[in-house]
Design goal:
Layout: H1 6-11, E1 27-33, E2 39-45, H2 47-51, E3 55-59, E4 84-85, E5 91-97, H3 100-109, E6 111-116, H4 123-129, E7 137-141, H5 144-150, E8 153-161, E9 173-178, E10 184-188, H6 193-204, E11 211-215, H7 230-243, E12 247-250, H8 253-259, E13 266-274, E14 280-292, H9 298-307, E15 317-326, H10 340-358, H11 362-368, H12 388-398, H13 401-414, E16 418-431, E17 440-447, E18 453-457, H14 466-478, E19 485-487, E20 490-491, H15 506-532, E21 541-544, E22 547-550, E23 553-558, H16 559-568, E24 574-580, E25 585-587, E26 592-594, E27 598-611, E28 617-626, H17 634-653, E29 684-689, H18 714-727, E30 736-737, H19 741-748
Parallel strand pairs: 1-12, 8-30, 10-11, 14-15, 18-19, 28-29
Antiparallel strand pairs: 1-5, 2-4, 2-6, 3-5, 7-15, 8-13, 9-10, 9-12, 11-20, 13-14, 16-27, 17-18, 17-24, 21-22, 22-23, 25-26, 27-28
Helix pairs in contact: 6-7, 9-10, 10-11, 14-15, 15-16, 17-18
The chain binds ligand MTE and dioxothiomolybdenum(VI) ion (MOS).
Dioxothiomolybdenum(VI) ion binds near residues 335 and 338.
């Protein structure tokens, strides 16, 4: 089935937050933020700004009726700065005005005096000064110290991966308005409606039932709206609470880029030990996460870095540590892969280093260490239904690796100023929120008396196609046409206490709850069929093609007629079902458990051609064998792999976040921050589904697909490195992403 949203998107008819007709008297909000990255607020003078005609009120921490606190995991983040500021872009006040242009004028008239304090922008500096967001985390398997002694080869190195701007097409925003009796409704562009509801209640001093949060759809989130859609929603709601008028805020791109956090930059160190057979015997890594000025989701992201530190490999002795380092940057946050990519880059760098020193292709080391059934992950989970070797074999045979290598060798021999490079990237990504209590969801299904159906779940549509998947589940379960099913908005009054749409788990969790609701309704309807057609209880009843089928044959009873029959019999045609992932658990005190329902696997082969005069490059091809399980929607799932791949390539090649030493974002526009466009997409992207059974823990055996393929992008980095080496064998190996053309050029002509 085609993505249900395609038509509306293409025709410009789909509704996003900014398309909603606003109520009469709606005010406009604008954030006044800190111009200094670290300091003590000495004085703020709002008087000139407040005098402007059209300024309704400038709200500060003094106007907060509840707690000035929006920190989710750790309460370390005020909504508005009080005495200190910790990053440029930190909200200090919320200007509420008749129009945006007046609010912008007012913002320029606010005078703030800040006594500056030292600014820290890198994780390394923070680490040296002992500035952390949360205590370190460490995963250990067996004994690395002893194991290193037995290794034939031991190599060490350092890596850096930079941040990444989410650049969702729709910037952050929200629209809040008063309901009766002091209640407030918020329409938010958030991945986490419940998080918005909960935080609003806390800041406004209300209960959760006073706040209704509604999400229509997002113009992209990519993790950037999991936690960081909340402040704007709370500010708008605060405006409503204080002024009793509707308030809307939509961030302009510059404000969004300056004020919001990004993918976490990581500075890391590794030590890898191998034996003569190229088996990795021991691996250690220390990850320094640049968390920014407040926790946000950093501790959870740090944890996932550890969960993926050995990627798709079995290593018998492992010690990996992560430090969440406190810096004066906007709090960094979730971004597709959620710390996993940062972890996986480091093990791939370690393998690249070993390959270089031992003078064997990296893929020989990768292949020799692929995970197998029964292997233990460093966090105690035993690997089951592993597809590492399968996907590797299918990729290297289907795409004929020896032939690709031969072609590259010939090309490199024949060309002096253009060189090609190749890299293989196996992936292994755990599915489930690593915080076990978050793995549950609910769905509400109404069958209306005319046979049409309305469904609500906790899933937020953000381009990943989850609504279409939900619709497919219901259409399939009831055997009715998809156009008989309506997906309602995501709303906290219909489905409560939701986990955010994240961790690639949304279709699994919400889909399984939805399927359960449908099954319960079907049971009731089957009873009606039995009575109506006077069947004996053994007769099998099913629903297909808008009809009731009895013992495999279509009966005269249609779906619509059956529903009306049930309605007249006063049967409940609504159901609300709950699903919680079984079997998963994790004990943080021991750092051991079984946190993932299953893993997603795959293997990509990336080839690149370098222009060795200019340092520019083009990707010839990325060929992928991906583990979709049994994809319930190949069109959507292919789109997810393609999008994630290109986003991953962007992270490792051209997207370069840059802050100056004062903590000011330099890459703050689309001219200084380059994301992949159609020309940056590899000339050939071929995605072949892995031949596999799928996994029962996945919805309809269709595995989660949102984040895992981003990590194929890591292959881009190593393909470039290999091509540089073909031109200049003297260049030093570097693990300093992104590999921008400037860095490539320097490497091409570097003399050691
Ligand atoms: N695809 C689109 N088009 N837009 C997005 O914002 N977010 C990604 C991924 N794919 C995203 C996307 C992220 S970060 C996650 S966690 C998953 O979608 C979430 O949705 P899912 O759980 O339904 O896969
Ligand atoms: Mo995705 S980073 O889990 O929102």
């Amino acid at each position: 089935m085609k993505n249900k949203d395609s038509r509306g998107h293409v025709r410009g008819e789909s509704l996003f937050l900014d398309d909603i007709n606003v109520r009469q008297g709606t005010l406009c909000g604008l954030v006044f933020d800190s111009p200094i990255a670290h300091g003590k607020i000495k004085n703020i003078d709002y008087s000139e700004a407040e005098k402007l005609d059209g300024i309704v009120k400038i709200l500060t921490h003094n106007d907060i009726p509840g707690e000035n606190q929006i920190g989710g995991i750790i309460p370390d983040e005020p909504l508005f700065a009080e005495d200190e500021v910790h990053y440029i872009g930190q909200p200090i006040a919320f200007i509420v005005a008749d129009t945006l242009s007046i609010a912008k004028k007012a913002r320029k008239l606010i005078k703030v005096e800040i006594e500056e304090l030292p600014v820290i922008t890198t994780a390394k500096e923070a680490f040296e000064k002992g500035l952390f967001i949360s205590p370190l985390r460490k995963f250990e398997l067996a004994d690395t110290t002893k194991a290193f002694e037995d290794c034939n080869y031991v190599f060490e190195g350092e890596t850096f991966t930079n941040g990444q701007e989410h650049l969702y097409l729709e910037t952050q925003g929200s629209y809040a308005f008063p309901l009766e009796n002091g209640n407030i409704k918020i329409i938010s562009s958030t991945q986490g409606p419940t998080q918005v509801q909960k935080t609003c209640a806390r800041v406004l001093g209300l209960s959760m039932h006073n706040i209704e949060v509604e999400v229509i759809r997002l113009g992209g989130g990519f993790g950037g709206k999991e936690d960081q859609a909340t402040p704007w929603a709370v500010m708008a709601a605060l405006g409503v609470k204080v002024l009793n008028r509707p308030v809307k805020i939509i961030l302009e791109r510059h404000d969004d880029m300056r004020m919001t956090g990004k993918r976490h930059p990581y500075s890391s160190r590794f030590k890898i030990g191998l034996n003569k057979q190229l088996k990795i015997i021991a691996f250690e890594a220390e990850f320094l996460q640049n968390s920014g000025a407040a926790a946000d989701l950093s501790p959870a992201i740090a944890e996932r870095t550890l969960f993926h530190a050995t990627n798709s490999y079995f290593i018998p002795n492992v010690k990996v540590t992560v430090h969440s380092c406190k810096t004066n940057l906007p709090p960094n946050t979730a971004f597709r892969g959620f710390g996993g990519p940062q972890g996986m880059f480091v093990i791939e760098a370690a393998i690249a280093k070993a390959s270089d020193k031992l003078n064997v292709p990296a893929y020989k080391i990768q292949e020799a260490n692929l995970l197998a059934d029964g292997d233990e992950f460093p966090f105690g989970q035993i690997a089951e239904h592993v597809e590492s070797q399968n996907s590797w074999k299918q990729a290297t045979t289907h795409f004929n690796l020896p032939e690709e290598e031969r072609k590259i060798a010939v090309f490199n021999q024949e060309n002096t100023h253009a060189k090609k490079g190749l890299a293989i990237m196996p992936i292994c990504f755990g599915i489930s929120f690593t915080n076990t209590p978050m793995n549950h969801a609910r769905a509400l299904v109404h069958i209306y008396q005319d046979g049409s159906v309305g469904i609500s779940t906790g899933a937020v549509e953000m381009g990943q196609g989850v609504n279409t998947k939900m619709l497919q589940i219901v259409a399939m379960a009831f055997g009715i046409d998809p156009d008989k099913v309506k997906i309602e908005t995501t709303n906290t009054t219909r489905v409560a206490n939701t986990s955010p749409t994240a961790a690639s788990s949304t279709a699994d969790l919400n889909g399984k709850a939805l399927l359960k609701a449908c099954e319960l309704l079907k049971d009731r309807l089957e009873n009606v069929v039995q009575q109506k057609l006077k069947l004996n209880p053994e007769t099998s009843v099913s629903f297909k093609e808008n009809s009731v089928w009895v013992d495999g044959k279509k009966s005269s009873l249609g779906w619509k007629q059956l529903v009306m029959e049930a309605f007249l019999k006063r049967i409940n045609l609504s159901e609300h079902a709950h699903y919680a992932t079984p079997q998963i658990h994790f004990d943080k005190s021991k750092e051991k458990g079984h946190p993932f329902a299953y893993h997603v696997y795959g293997t990509s082969i990336t080839t690149v051609t370098l222009d060795c005069i200019r340092g520019t490059y083009e990707f010839d091809a990325v060929e992928i064998v991906h583990d979709f399980g049994q994809s319930m929607n190949p069109g959507i799932d292919l789109g997810q792999v393609e999008g994630a791949l290109v986003q991953g390539i962007g992270w490792l090649t051209m997207e370069e976040i840059s802050y100056d030493k004062n903590g000011r974002l330099l890459s703050n526009t689309l001219s200084t921050y380059k994301v992949p466009d159609i020309y940056a997409v590899p000339d050939k992207v071929e995605i072949v589904p892995l031949e596999t059974e799928g996994n029962e823990m996945a919805i309809l055996k269709s595995k989660a697909v949102g984040e895992p393929p981003l990590m194929y992008g890591i292959g881009a980095y190593f393909a470039i490195q290999n091509a540089i080496r073909a031109f200049n064998p003297n260049s030093r190996l570097k693990f300093d992403a992104p590999f921008t053309p400037e860095k490539v050029l320097l490497s091409l002509y570097e003399q050691n």
